[in-house]
């Protein structure tokens, strides 16, 4: 059983999935992303069509133009016409994000819209019925036959695992609800001018709740009652497990900043004496296993197998926590026996079993390396927190969000005022993007001094208003609202 925790009060929204006080998954939503999250729906405008790569480039209003492959255009929208004759330059088209922007690439789009519900996924243009593979084949056939009369061309639907437990009337009710949502988006598309957002899929909490709604959960904790209230309306079947608390659940990693530091470090040490070295590049991620500190009284062959099976679980955990995607190569300890390799592959498959994001394990190469891929939907922790190609230096945004969390936590104590030295670049970002939200929820007086010589920010002093004023000999400190 696990816990979902959502921190939505601050500018940076954070969602955690926790098992036995260990963070298994972390998702982050930064508002400056312009809402370009997986699942968001836009009325876009065709910028141009490239026949050679068989794709159209769609303006959805973001910094980067979206990429719409030919295969992502359902036949029902073409009606037998050539795709390039339908997607002419300047034409309007409704699209959905299936993969967020990555490095220099814009978001990947689809015109085959999917609206996920609790028991089914509504597909306005797909013209097919599919069922979860976890439903027994006989029951799948029954569901497909009974659901077909509820649909009109070109509608389609994907029936989730729990749909097998519902009556036809209950399935129809959810189908009608999803159909009404889609009709409301079509209405907005008629009255808006492209590019325009028709529906923003929030990562925190909506997308994460959707991913974990069928997992066994002890409770779901929100730091804002209003967010909990809206989540209960969207996910009524989870309402009984939802509660509002200011305090974050206890986690093994300490607090959020300590967690982020761990996830940005390439070195992972385990309690058994194993070490993982994780190197992320633009093209692929390589994980190396070091067992020099591992102790065992078994034979060498058994020890190597035990190490690799344990390492498989740790590798899967870190890949998921760091949201590593794309091509991944793991260098396990060398094994001679084919059956031992199969056991390690099975251990890796088991470890990825609860991961909401699809992965594919291809097995061992001739060099004894395991190859796998994991679907890329959003930025990894490393990509989100650090500068491109400089993995050791965090971005100004990440320091701003960190300072926001620290000021918010300090406001929960008896502290009345604080003095901070701040680099001008960070201070400008803080004033424009963080302070407008933060000042509404804290009463702390924040005095700031611009200082180009420091690395982003330094704490000078905190305490009562009187203490700070008495020690304020340096007149360059000013309240953040008044700094010019």
What are the low-pLDDT stretches, counting only 5+ consecutive residues below 50?
A: none
Number of helices: 13
How much helix is in the residues?
Answer: 25-40%
Principal-axes geometry comes out as globular
Distance between the termini: 51 Å
CATH class of the largest domain: Alpha Beta
CATH topology descriptor of the largest domain: Aminopeptidase
Q: Which radius of gyration do the C-alpha atoms yield? A: 25 Å
> What number of structural domains do the residues give?
5
Percent of residues in β-strands: 25-35%
What structural class do helix, strand and pairing data support?
alpha+beta
Q: In CATH terms, what is the architecture of the largest domain?
A: 3-Layer(aba) Sandwich
Overall pLDDT metric = 89
Biggest pleated sheet: 6 strands, antiparallel
Number of strands: 27
